[in-house]
Amino acid sequence: MKDAKILAKRIVFGERGAELREYALRQLRPGELLIKARCSLVSTGTETTLYVSHRWGASTSTGSAAASYPIDDEWDFEDYGRGDTWDIDRNRKFPGYALAGDVISCGDGDVGEFAVGDRVITLHHHANFAIAPAHPAITLKIPYGVTYEAATFCVLGSVSLHAIHRANLQLSENVVVMGAGVVGLLAVQLARLAGAAQVISVDLSPRRLELALEVGADFTINPLREDLVGLVRKYSGSDGANCVIEAVGNPAVLQSCMQVCAPGARVVVMGAIVGKVELEMYNEFIFRELTLIASQQPRNPVQDSIYYHFTGQRNRRMILSLIQRAGLNVTSLLTHRYPFHAAAEVYRMLGEAKNADYDRSGDVHRDMIGVLFEWGD
Q1: Which CATH number characterizes residue 53's domain?
Q2: pTM listed for this prediction
Q3: What is the rounded average pLDDT of the residues 103-107?
Q4: Which of 67, 57, 47, 60 has the alpha carbon at shortest distance from 351?
């Protein structure tokens, strides 16, 4: 690849929706890998939020900043922010951050443990070719016995694992996970592995609640049809949950998170809640001495320290290890596979699901949980 240009395709968000664009890959720089993609996983929560905001002009960032990135832009390790920032503007134009494929070329200089032919997972946007740093903060080898498809879940898995670390779960605590998308269903399984006594999954979708039971939830609750607070107290055998993990990203859900808490409980906000939140503070929060904890996975440090050991790459390696040892079920979470050229339709459906009035529209497209793009040859 060092002398020849490769024409690549990537998914781009624009005013007309999701589009497939072609561009010429730049030359590899020292310490970089060229990866031919097999598949990439859609982060249905984050990507749909960014798609909707871009498509209908509701800015979640600086608006025009996303347009400043050229079509052939490839991030390097400095762009990653060394764990301090997340470049939301780049992601508003180029969605995706979990791509699995094969190393087909290495740049000059030190590429560490990587070699041509390695199966890898990298934090890269949806594309058929990826240029990625040969650095464990960005790129990891896929362990033996783990498929390309399963490996793509390690990125969202690290989001859920970071929330579990932030929650500081103790053996025998009762946990409620609000939201049964990918990160919520992974959090259900990780809470069980962390020693939770009862794990309760809450969602509006019957299909998602069925899946929650399949992957290890003890109980499920649909607040549209059932008494949320009453059932949490019944299932936990106490006056509420010791820990609630918010995995919806909807500001309206935060009040419900507090209502199902036992006195002294913790609420971990894992979902990307954007905008203002109105809460009943005294009766629900202050009087019962609750603790509100933010969980933002990109804040994980790149370098280990004596103060915090759970780097992003360590978390992703842990998820890959759990998948390899059959300790984490991601196969059931992969509900939809699409060829990459169907991207416009895929994001249209995800956008409809996010904007739909649930009471009127029912389970519209909400069976789209784990969504994978296949890049083929």
Answers
A1: 3.90.180.10
A2: 0.90
A3: 96
A4: 47
